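hey
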């Protein structure tokens, strides 16, 4: 707190000119304070009971001193732990600008509950020639009075700090028992009850009116078909509003409020308190699995914005010039009769970046070359069965020695979870402080994440990798016919999945470079045919990896750029 010492310049207010029998009247200011708004408003009046009681006591003290109170300063609902209070600062400014002899308070703890602030305030009063007077305590400027003043200020500071400690301890104990240490969020109501012994019990109940809407909000967002803005619009239309208070009427939620709602674990039965998560005894209105799904969607949408790219043809952006290596661009030409033709042209030649003399390739020729290429990579059912057997044998051999490794990981996870439970119990028993708890929790959380990741990798290697290769083999058994039957969207996905690069040579031939795992599969199939198999297959080089999905005909659309309209839709607009 910064308190400015008074200067010699005083306002000519005439306060010191009042005289009785040529004697000046002693002037005083009165300072009144209560700690909470509830105290200030108790009893249905603006000031409540405590402020009037303090005013009456200060008035009696002024009469004893033979002084007249010329100004009253009030801080209603303000804590004395800080000196940054409007009423206090106004009083110090008034005292510095006028001739006042006394500052009357009901008790010293009304003025300050911090010893350092008390000293600074008292120094400012002394510098202005003002005597601090308590209506209920014997303090004055004598050595004994100053001693009493110091003792009372220290007691006030001790009371304030001890009260804060006890409140914090009580809240921590409440959290340990599953209670709610703060105002319950929307969807719940803070209620007061009386138990069989006549004691007041404060608890939390589900808000029957708003809780179903909160549950519905989580369920809708978990579908992945709406945004926070769209969800807010729907919730407002369904009538979700805040709980009214004596000073604030109900109103619809804001976007930031809804986002905080969706990220609040309280709805799943978990209390977030002082940086830690604790199980609550209140009734959850959202299943933990549903809450986790919503968190994953929120993180994904925050980290990455989906970019939609339009394609006029399913081969656009996939073909390269076999002469100079530049990408082939889709272009259109219209003859004198108004007929439009589509071509793929070398971008190096078109932009004059290379000396390429590659001629344009009609779209129909490019389509035929790519479609025919699938015949060269299609394998028979017998080859599929032979290669699938090799895949299973390789995975079985690879996983044979990993049982002990998995058992060790499971034991380590159980050990870490048990350690976490012991640390939490020690914290609630005041054996370790919060920073120590958080430090160990961070270590355990990192250890658990590492263990879970390794277990997930083991499972993915065993089940996911095996299924992925089986699906890749199965795709090759009918690749040619499947491509012929597919639409433009699936053809684009197929080309991205199977091929790392497609070059059209100057003599209008297609030079392929397969993507993994298809390059390896075709190589294995080629070796199989050399050992007496049916199919003579030529070997292809490998390139960048494109993942194949088991959910769609060709590849997971979420892993590549989204396809859109085909060439036909482009022609129809010309």
């Amino acid at each position: 707190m910064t308190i400015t010492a008074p200067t010699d310049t005083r306002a000519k207010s005439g306060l010191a000119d009042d005289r009785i029998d040529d004697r000046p009247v002693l002037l005083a200011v009165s300072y009144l304070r209560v700690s909470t708004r509830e105290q200030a408003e108790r009893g249905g009046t603006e000031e409540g009971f405590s402020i009037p009681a303090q005013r009456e006591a200060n008035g009696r003290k002024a009469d004893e001193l033979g002084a007249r109170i010329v100004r009253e300063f009030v801080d209603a609902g303000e804590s004395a732990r800080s000196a940054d209070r409007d009423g206090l600062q106004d009083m110090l400014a008034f005292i510095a600008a006028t001739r006042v002899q006394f500052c009357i308070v009901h008790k010293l703890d009304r003025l300050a509950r911090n010893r350092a602030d008390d000293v600074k305030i008292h120094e400012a009063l002394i510098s202005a020639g003002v005597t601090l007077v308590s209506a209920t305590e014997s303090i004055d400027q004598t050595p004994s009075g100053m001693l009493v003043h110091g003792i009372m200020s220290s007691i006030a500071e001790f009371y304030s700090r001890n009260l804060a400690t006890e409140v914090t301890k009580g809240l921590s104990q409440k959290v340990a028992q599953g209670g709610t240490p703060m105002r319950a969020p929307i969807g719940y109501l803070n209620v007061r009850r009386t138990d069989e012994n006549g004691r007041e019990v404060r608890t939390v109940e589900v808000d029957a009116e708003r809780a179903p809407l909160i549950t519905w909000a989580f369920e809708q967002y978990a579908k992945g078909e709406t945004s926070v803005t769209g969800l807010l619009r729907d919730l407002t239309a369904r009538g979700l509003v805040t709980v009214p208070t004596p000073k604030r009427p109900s109103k619809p939620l804001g976007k930031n409020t809804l986002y905080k709602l969706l990220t609040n674990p309280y709805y799943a039965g978990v209390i977030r308190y002082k940086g830690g998560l604790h199980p609550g005894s209140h009734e959850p209105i959202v299943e933990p699995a549903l809450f986790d799904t919503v968190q994953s969607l929120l993180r994904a949408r925050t980290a990455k914005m989906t970019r939609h790219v339009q394609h006029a043809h399913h081969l656009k952006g996939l073909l390269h010039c076999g002469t100079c290596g530049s990408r082939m661009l889709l272009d259109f030409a219209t003859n004198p009769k108004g007929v439009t033709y589509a071509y793929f042209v070398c971008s190096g030649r078109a932009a004059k970046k290379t000396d390429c003399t590659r001629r344009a390739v009609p779209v129909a020729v490019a389509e035929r070359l790519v479609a025919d290429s699938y015949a060269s990579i299609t394998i028979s059912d017998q080859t599929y069965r032979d290669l699938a057997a090799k895949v299973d044998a390789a995975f079985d051999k690879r996983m044979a020695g990993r049982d002990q490794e998995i058992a060790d990981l499971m034991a380590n996870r159980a050990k870490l979870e048990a350690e976490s439970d012991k640390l939490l119990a020690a914290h609630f028993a005041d054996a370790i402080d919060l920073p120590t708890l958080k430090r160990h929790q961070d270590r355990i959380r990192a250890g658990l994440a590492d263990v879970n990741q390794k277990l997930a990798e083991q499972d993915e290697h065993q089940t996911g990798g095996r299924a992925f290769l089986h699906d890749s083999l199965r795709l090759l058994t009918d690749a040619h016919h499947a491509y012929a039957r597919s639409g433009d969207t699936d053809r684009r996905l197929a080309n991205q999945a199977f091929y790392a690069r497609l070059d059209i040579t100057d003599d209008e031939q297609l030079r392929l470079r397969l993507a993994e795992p298809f390059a390896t599969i075709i190589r294995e199939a080629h070796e199989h045919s050399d050992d007496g198999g049916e199919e003579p297959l030529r070997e292809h080089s490998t390139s960048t990896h494109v993942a194949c999905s088991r959910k769609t005909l060709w590849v997971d659309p979420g892993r590549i750029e989204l396809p859109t309209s085909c060439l036909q839709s482009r022609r129809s607009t010309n």
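The first strand starts at residue 19 and ends at 20. The mean pLDDT is 75.
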